[in-house]
Amino acid sequence: IDVFLARSLLEKLYLFQYPIRPASMTYDDVTHLSAKIKPKQQKVELEMAIDTLNPNYCRSKGEQIALNVDGTCTDETSTYSSKLMDKQTFCSSQAASNVSRYAAAVYKKGELHLTPLHGILQLRPSFTYLDKADAKHREREAANEGGDSSQDEAEDDVKQITVRFSRPETEQARQRRVQSYEFLQKRQAEEHWVHLHYYGLKDSRSEHERQYLFSQGHGLAENTELIKSPSEYLMMLMPPSVEEENDKPVAPSNVLSMAQLRTLPLADQIKILMKNVKVMPFANLMSLLGSGTDSTAVLRCIQQVAMLVQGNWVVKSDVLYPKDTSSPHSGVPAEVLCRGRDFVMWKFTQDRWVVRKEVAAVTKLCPEDVKDFLEHMSVARINKGWEFMLPYDEDFVKKHPDIVQRQHMLWMGIQAKLEKVYNLLKEHLTPKKQEAQSANPLLVSGEQRVNMAKAKVKQNYGQLEKEFQKQKAEVKSNDTSAKMDVSNIHIKEEPVSDEEPMDTLAYEGLNNGVVNGLHAEEDSVDSLNGHLPGGRIDRVAQELKAFVSSTFKKQFVLTLSELKRLFNLHLASLPPGHTLFSGISDKMLQDMVLDTGCKQILVPFPPQTAASPDELKVYALWEAGDTYDQHRQVLLEIFSKNYRVRRNVIHSQLSQECGEDLNKQEVDRVLKVSLCSSVGLTQLIQT
C-alpha cells in the first residue's frame, strides 16, 4: 500500500471527541446553533440543538430547568427563549498535549493518505446555566430581604474608603505575578472568541473540504524527506522518546506501572516499591527489579529507604510520613508519627508479637494511628496480638552478615533515642517469653535461639579453647618478626564466658549477640570478645585512636555513656567489613581514652543519684592546645570537688587562678567554649 502525506490541511485539522450521545441527540444530523474558538488556547465551544419532540425527552424537566435559569420573564438575555431547555453547550479540553504522533488517515483505491492532526479536543457538557440559575435565586432572595430598607439606602451608600499608592514593581514580583494562576486565567479570558460557521456532514462545502484529506501531488519531488536510508527511516518511525515530566499523567499513589517504573533510576524504583509494599524480603525485591540488576547496588539503595526487621526490609517511617505532613486521623505532626512507628518496628526486632495496648500506652497516640502502624507490617491474631507478617529470612542473614551488623548498630541508636523520648522501663526493653507455636514449628523466639546458641557454645568450649590457645601462640611467635607495637593494646586472655563485649546498648536484654532478634554466627565469638588476629590489632588501634582524638577535640568533656553512643553512631556510618566491626570492649575504649591525653574526672555525685554507672564516669581532654586550656583545667578541678557549683564561685576561682579580672560575659564565654558545648558536661550538670 502506498502511503502519502497530505499537506493541504496542515495545522488546521482537529479531532473532536464527543461524549456518549443521549437518545435525544445524534451528532450526524444535529443542528449546530453556534460555534466559536480561541485559537491560541485551542478551546472550542459548540451549542447544539436538542430534539424536544423525541419520546426520550422529558418535557417537564426541560421546562423546570428553563424556569430556574431565566425566571418567568423572557427577553433577549434569556438563555432559553422557548421556555424549554432545547439546546446544550459543549466546551473542549485538550486530550493530549503532544499530538505530533497522530494523523487522520483516508484509504482509497489502494492508497493511504495521512494528514497530521493539529489538536485533539474532548467536548464535555457545560453547566454554566446552573450557575446562572443560582445567581437568579440569590438576586430574588436579596430583593425580598431588602424590600423594607429602601429608606436607608442613601446612608448605606456612604462608605469610608482608603486610598493607597502602589509601590514600583520589582522584577521578581513581576515574574511571580506573571506566573500566578490568577494572571494566567485573566490572560486566557482576554483572548477573543472567533465565531465559526458549521457545515453539516452532507453539505457541499464539507464534501469540498474532505478532498483536502488526499495528497494533491504524488510525485517524489514533493516527498524527498521519505527518501532515507533504512536506519534513518526506522528512526523517523520510532524516534527516541523524550520524557517530559509535565506531560506524564499523575497516577494514584497505590497504582504502579512496572514498565514505567523500570525507566526510573534504581534508587527511585526501590523507594516506590517499598513505599507501596512496605514489607518485603530481599529475594522478592530482586525479582521485581528484573534480571540483570546488581544486588550490591540494590543493597546500597535499600538501606536508604528501609530498615532490616527479622531478615526482611521494612520501609522507613520518614518515607511514609514526610516532613510538614500530619496524621489524617488525629492531625499529629509527622515527627511524632515517625517516632511511634519506629517504636513498633523496634518492638518487632525484639519479638514476633506486639500488643496494641502496650504500643498505645507508650506512644500516647490515637488508636487509629497505632492500627495503621501495625497493619503496615503485621497481622492481627485473635487473643494473641499482632504477629509480624513475614517469616524470618534466614537465608539473607547468612549471606549478608555485614549488612545485618550495620542494621543492628542503627537499631541500637534508634533504641537509645526511643528510651529518652518515651522513658522506657525495663519490661519494655526485655522481650517477653512466647509459647511455642504448634501451627508453625519453624518460628523460634529470640530468647530460645539465644539459649540454644549458649548451649552449643558450652558443648564446643573445649574445642574453642584449644583453637584460642593455638592462635595465641601464633600471635606471640609473630610479635618479634613483625615488630608490632602493641603497648596500647591489651589482648584478653580470659575465658570466653568471663568477659562480655562492650555493652553498647546499656540494656541487659540486648548485649547477648542478638541482631534483630537473632543470634550472630558462631565463628564470630572470638572477635566479639576482643580476641583479634595479630595482623589486625594495629589497624584497629589506629582507627579507634583516631575516633577518640577527633571526638574529644570537638567535645572536651564526655561521659562513658555518651562516648559509647557516639561510637555506635560512628560504626553505623562505616562501610561493611570495616576493621572496627571486629569488636571493641569497654576496657579497650577507656584505655584508649586515657592514652590520647584525656583524664578521668572523679565528680563527687550524691549517693542517691539515678544515673547509670556509665554516666558517672566522666572523661575530659586535659590539654587541647588552645587559649582556654588553663581555664578548662581550673573548671575541671572545681567539678572534681563538687558536682554542683554556683556561677559566682566559678567566676572568683577563674579570676584567682588565671590572674585575670573576667566579667560576666567573659565567664559565660569560657563556660560555653571550654565545657558547656559538650553533651557530656551538660548531662553532668543536669544530673
UniProtKB/TrEMBL annotation:
Q: Which domain of life is it from?
A: Eukaryota
Region annotated Disordered, chain positions: 134-157
Q: Which GO terms describe its cellular component?
A: RNA polymerase III complex
One Pfam assignment: RPC5
Which GO terms are recorded in the biological process aspect for this UniProt protein? tRNA transcription by RNA polymerase III
Query: Which InterPro entries would you find in this protein's record?
Result: RNA_pol_III_Rpc5 (IPR006886), RPC5_C (IPR045576)
Q: Where is the DNA-directed RNA polymerase III subunit RPC5 C-terminal domain?
A: 432-684
Composition bias of kind Basic and acidic residues appears in 134-143
PANTHER family, alphabetized: DNA-DIRECTED RNA POLYMERASE III SUBUNIT RPC5, DNA-DIRECTED RNA POLYMERASES III 80 KDA POLYPEPTIDE RNA POLYMERASE III SUBUNIT 5
Query: What protein name does the entry list?
Result: RPC5 polymerase
| Origin organism lineage | Eukaryota, Metazoa, Chordata, Craniata, Vertebrata
